[in-house]
Structures are given as structure tokens and as C-alpha cells.
Amino acid sequence: MEPMTRRSFLTLSLRLATVMGLGASAAPALADALERIVRGRAPTLWLQGQCCSGCSVSLLDSEPVGADALLTRDIALAFHQTLSGATGHQAVETVDRAIAAGGFLLVVEGSVPMDMPQACFFGEEAFGSQLLRAARAAKAVVAVGTCATSGGIPAAEGNPTGAISVPEFLRRSGLSVPCISIPGCPAHPDWIVGTLTHVLGFGLPPLDDRGRPKAFFDKLVHDQCPRFADYEREVFAEKFSDDGCLFRLGCAGPITKADCNLRLWNGGTSSCIKAGAPCIGCAWEGFAAKRDFPFYLKNGQLQPKPKGHA
Ligand code: SF4
Ligand code: SF4
Q1: pLDDT digits (tens, 9 = 90+) for 143-184
Q2: Which of 57, 246, 273, 282 to mutate to test the pocket of ligand 2 (most atoms within 8 A of CB)?
Q3: Is the CB of 283 under 6 A from ligand 2?
């Protein structure tokens, strides 16, 4: 396996600088920040609550810095529940050491079970208690994935755990530590890597009123959609595999802010809509919140039309 080079850091950083609106001159600073994460010189603690680890898996798709090199050999996060080698009491001690040292960037994946603490334990400690200790010692918190930013599937109506989001947990705990929200089920690897490098290279990125980095979540999926012209002409798909706008099949693009259609997924290959599937609103704060949340609709209109459209 080839070691990562300054060139590979710069390649990624140039792309990140462009999409974050920083300009090419910011690339070296972003490359430094990325290198600090990867070399373990930027203390970062990654904790997982109620989640499926999907955002960690998504991070493994980070390009062009290869995920295998990034995470199995080069990266030295203080701890990552899924990816770190430590288990059992070693894992508990590693996290406790990191928390005692303080001053780290705390990344949290998953929601917090308030009504059923036993639903999520780390060692012999309830996740909520561990999160509280860690957040008190952190410089900033980054909530990754819709479970962490809005509650997501663990907080769906009827769930018995009383799952809440990380920002809501911090609010109820009276903590004012800065918190950035990166929604998505899962979050795109660029959104994670770009936000972390911005925090380390330049401080907090510009955020919207929900704490989301504007660079990634400023526009609706709908606004950057390759089928937008069909929407305007009212050419609608009536069934999957039809050409045309997917609005009548339940597309949530008009209410979901994310740059999926611009950035594309899987190393820039495609997006949900490019692949013929409606946006299911995985980065929307209402994703899976209601018991009858429809992932798809057949021949029915789910979402209100965006403002300005009759
Ligand atoms: S409704 Fe969906 S498919 Fe149609 S233009 Fe908007 S985002 Fe694209
Ligand atoms: S297009 Fe919609 S469902 Fe697909 S990844 Fe983006 S926000 Fe999620």
C-alpha cells in the first residue's frame, strides 16, 4: 500500500476548498488540517450512540485519500468505536484518557436514548453519561448523520428509547459547546472530511440556523436536480424507471437541503435521483420521524411545491 503523500492531501483539499467556497488559496491550510487528522496530531474522539455505523462506513468511501490507508493505517483518532483495535477495558481506558486530556474535537454518530439508558452502553456506562463527560471536555462537537442531528430512525414515532439528537441533548444538559450538524443517512464523506478539516484549518465554518455547514446544505436537492426542467414543464414520472421528475413518486427533493446532485456519491459516480430513485429526504430533519413516513409514493403527491412554483 502506497503511503499517502502531500500531493494526495492537496488534491482532496483543493476539491474541498472549491466546494466550500474558500478558493484555491485555502487548499494548503486545508491540507495541513487534513494531514493533522490523519497523522493523529489533531485529537479527535469519535463516539457512537444509537446508530447503524453507516456514517462511519460512508467515511470509508472518502476519496481520493483511500479509505483503507486513511483509516486502517494512517489515521490515529483517539478512539473510534467501530474502527479502533482496542476492545473491552482497553477501549474504556482509551476513551477515558482522551476525555481526561480534553481539548479534542468530539464527533458523535447516533442518537441518545433518554428514556431507556440501557439501550446503549459503553463498558458499564450509559452512552448519555459518556457523551456528557466527553462534550464537557471537547473544544467542539460535530454531530454526524441524521440520527445524531435530528434523532433519525432511532427516534421514529413509537420508538421506546426516547431517542433525541445530539444538539437537543447538549441543550437539555445546559452545555454551550459549539455544535455542528452534518445530516444524512448516511452523511456524505466529503461533508464529514470537509467539515473536520475546516474546523481544524479555519475554525467553525459558516453555519445555517440548524448548525449545518452552508457549503454543503445551503440549497435544496430540488434546486440542483438534473430533472428540474421536467418539474418545470410538469413532466412527471408515473412509475419507477420512467423519465421525468420524480415528484409524484414522493420525491423529497423540494424540502431537503443537501448538495447530492452537485457533489454526487460513490466517488462522484451518481446520486439517488440520477440513479432513478426519488430523494427520500435522508438529510431532512423530518426523516423517518412519523410512523407513516413514506419512503416512496406511488402516483401520489407527497410534498408541497416549493415557494414560487404554482
Ligand atoms: S421533485 Fe425531485 S426529481 Fe423532481 S425536480 Fe425536484 S428534486 Fe428533482
Ligand atoms: S438525494 Fe436525498 S435521499 Fe439521496 S442522499 Fe441526498 S438527501 Fe439523501
Answers
A1: 999 999 999 999 999 999 999 999 999 999 999 999 999 999
A2: 282
A3: yes
- Which atom from ligand 2 is nearest to the alpha carbon of 253? 2
- List the one residue out of 201, 159, 160 whose CA is nearest residue 32: 201
Q: How far is the CA of 186 from the centre of ligand 2 (A)?
A: 9
Give per-residue pLDDT as tens, 222-245: 999 999 999 999 999 998 889 999
The verdict on the CB of residue 272 being under 6 Å from ligand 2 is yes
- The domain 6-216 is classified under which CATH number: 1.20.1250.20, 3.10.560.10, 3.40.50.700, 3.30.70.3270? 3.40.50.700
Looking at ligand 1, which atom is closest to the CA of residue 220?
Answer: 7
Residue 86 Cα, ligand 2 centroid: separation in angstroms?
34
Which stretches of the chain are assigned E, i.e. beta strand?
Answer: 44-48, 79-80, 105-109, 112-113, 121-122, 125-126, 140-144, 163-164, 179-182
Helix (H, G, I), strand (E, B) or coil at 121: strand
Which CATH superfamily groups domain 219-310?
Cytochrome-c3 hydrogenase, C-terminal domain (4.10.480.10)
